[in-house]
């Protein structure tokens, strides 16, 4: 009887979490996490934003300016936490409100990949599986206008926003010179098997155009084209390479033969 009670309690808690997530539309994603050494290391911030956009959230990096029309308590603060594991990588995701209270915590994503890039990306994608299962739908709960603030506080906020805008402009200027050359969808690429269920996509020269790495979903691969990283996903029996460039989602049709 006690076990049944605990199970029901956990189930109701999960439902409560899912409902409260639906009250929020905006999420702020940090560029650096406690277990990493540098900003966006292993593309964790980029992959986080990609997944959150796909769930349905409006997402801002921590160095971007959130519009004044959004109350700070209508914004969720996102984080990735690394769990201790032996010969494996365990990650889970948390969403906290403006008071630091956890609104939702994902299930743990586990990866046994040896390569750090693959392991962190795989574990994060698996953690997001539980978030996708919530079938998030924003219900307009807390996205309200900001209350009037004292003039001094407004001046300080404006100065901080100007500084953030300048930082964002510098990042955008730096990334504009590294634009990705699109793959011609009429060119057939052949999937050449690699170890561990991974592939490299080659053209008829043959040259390696892209490397793709398996995930828990057979219709989705982590993908790397030169220095650009994203995902290769199957939609309506057609493959697409999707990635972010200057904070814009780019989706390229890819002609692949496995």
From TrEMBL:
It comes from the Bacteria. Keywords: Signal. Residues 1-18 form the signal peptide. This is DUF4468 domain-containing protein.
